[in-house]
């Protein structure tokens, strides 16, 4: 991901990295918005937009009890996330990840740019 321009995207990126690096564990409760905004050095509205973005991406969930790191994030770390983790931590693996391959299969990529023509029986081109 290129460097985020908007402050809320920068905050979302910092929290996303903490989740991907395992610093914020699955199911962990985040501090309340006022405290988290103060920690991040932003306004509560800016933090709210960042949390909305992370919720849409599947990294966090919210309820009446608070905001939590999602138990099973639907997104896998991108190559950019893994490269920046190596630069920050020296390891390509997040907390709890291993190099053991558990499943592998070949996937045929979609064919784009193919033109299909419908011809009438007995008709000429």
Spell out the blueprint of helices and strands.
Elements lengths: L6 H14 L12 H8 L3 H14 L2 E4 L2 E4 L9 H11 L36
Antiparallel strand pairs: 1-2
Helix pairs in contact: 1-3, 2-3
Walk me through this protein's architecture:
- By secondary structure, this protein is mainly alpha-helical.
- 38% of the residues lie in helices and 6% in strands.
- The chain contains 4 helices and 2 strands, in the order αααββα.
- The chain has a two-stranded antiparallel ribbon.
- β1 (60-63) and β2 (66-69) form a beta hairpin.
- It is extended, with a radius of gyration of 21 Å.
- The mean pLDDT is 80.
Strand content: 5-15%
Mean of all residue-level pLDDT scores:
80
Radius of gyration: 21 Å
Helix content: 25-40%
Number of strands: 2
Tell me about the largest β-sheet: 2 strands, antiparallel
What structural category arises from helix and sheet content? mainly alpha
The global form is extended
Query: Can you list the strand order of the major beta sheet?
Result: 1-2
Topology as a string of helices (H) and strands (E): HHHEEH
Ends apart, CA distance between termini: 48 Å
Tally of DSSP helical segments: 4
Low-confidence stretches: none
């Amino acid at each position: 991901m290129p460097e985020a321009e908007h402050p809320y995207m920068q905050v979302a990126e910092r929290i996303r990295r903490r989740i991907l690096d395992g610093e914020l564990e699955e199911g962990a409760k985040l501090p309340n918005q006022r405290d988290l905004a103060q920690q991040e050095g932003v306004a509560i509205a800016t933090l709210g937009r960042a949390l909305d973005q992370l919720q849409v991406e599947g990294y966090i969930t919210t309820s009446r009890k608070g905001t939590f790191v999602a138990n099973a994030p639907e997104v896998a770390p991108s190559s950019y996330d893994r490269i920046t983790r190596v630069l920050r931590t020296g390891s390509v693996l997040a907390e709890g990840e291993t190099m053991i391959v558990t499943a592998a299969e070949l996937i045929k990529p979609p064919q784009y740019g193919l033109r299909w023509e419908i011809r009438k029986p007995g008709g000429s081109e």
